From TrEMBL:
Gene3D superfamilies: Potassium Channel Kv1.1, Chain A (3.30.710.10). It comes from Panagrolaimus superbus. It holds the Pfam family BTB. Residues 40-107 form the BTB domain. This is BTB domain-containing protein. SMART domains: BTB (SM00225). It comes from the Eukaryota.
Amino acid sequence: MTIKIEGVLVVEKEMPKKGETFGDNRDALGLGLWNQEENKDITITADGKEVTAHKLVLAARSPVFAAMFESGMKETKENKVEIKDFSHDLVAAAIKLCYHHSLVTDITLNNKMALLQFFDKYDIQPLKRI
């Protein structure tokens, strides 16, 4: 007897609250870092709106960001990056996805396509599977 099942399994988790103990949760680092506003050291601007992040997280996900931060470019000195070719909402979603997939929900097909373009431009390989 063979049973074939096709579909998508979705697991919902609550996001940990700031300062919460995470135990053995492997996802805790990204979520914990995202919740620590005071330690974020780079500001990403798009459409005149800002998103803050950790250089280390972005550099770990993207060799493009890593090269930008290591090169001594204006962005590194000023701790600001302006992204002109993507909307603020898309940039914010992409930055959140660098931390953890649960930070962005309800991604439409159009947004997935735009995120794929962002991930391609900034060479964020692991997130291209979303």
